[in-house]
Amino acid sequence: MIATAYAPESPPSKILAHLQRNSEATIRELEVLVGISTTAVREHLTHLEARGLIGTRLVRQGPGRPHLVYSLLPRAHELFPKEYGTLVTLLMRELVNQGHPEQLQMLLDAVGTRLASEYGVQIGTGSIQERLNRLQTMLNERGIPADIDLEAAGLHIYACPYHSVAQEHPAICTMERGMLQQVLGETIQLDGSIRDGQRSCHFVIDRSSVGA
């Protein structure tokens, strides 16, 4: 069974997996697939439609009444497993293997700058404490657990969003540090990382650089 946001053997997961493999299905087909009543299938389909995961179209075949067929909407494809980390790792490895490590660094620097511009709009200005608070809130809202380190004037990030890629390319950690420097406007050091076996990536602000 394909992994989705639903339990693997649940009716919604079976319905989504079937539609992914077969493009479309009728209620009768899904009833047979899941092994539940038509009413129960309709309830699950209503739930999936309300979440914007499936849509319907009316099909007319022969002299009989037209019937509905169900199919996945683009949003549903985000529920299925992704291999972004593998793809990015292979692309970065290829750049290095072809003798272009400088292009890899330029690429990561550009990505860091783009991320900084996106984060910076939400972080805004203010004291370093205010900026850290907003950064922590933003990371948590994006599903990246983070805590402010009041004693060291820094940030603990407990989940690396680029973990699989960072295992092979430590330059990812450098990119993240540079991005945070741009966002916070302070000099930052990386004092331990998940990549090195620590429980968090610990970014520490150079107190001598703090201007607010």
Fold and architecture overview:
By secondary structure, the chain is an alpha+beta fold. The protein is 48% helix and 14% strand. The protein is built from eight helices and seven strands; from the N terminus they run H-E-H-H-E-E-H-H-H-E-E-H-H-E-E. The chain has helices spanning 11-22, 27-34, 38-50, 84-97, 101-123, 128-141, 163-166, 171-184; strands at residues 24-25, 54-59, 67-72, 146-149, 154-157, 188-190, 201-205. Strands 4-5-7-6 form a four-stranded antiparallel β-sheet, with helices on one face. It has a three-stranded antiparallel β-sheet with strand order 1-3-2. Strand 2 (54-59) and strand 3 (67-72) form a beta hairpin. Helix 2 (27-34) crosses helix 3 (38-50) and helix 5 packs parallel to helix 8. The longest helix is centred in the middle third of the chain and has 23 residues, at 101-123. The model has no long low-confidence stretch (mean pLDDT 84).
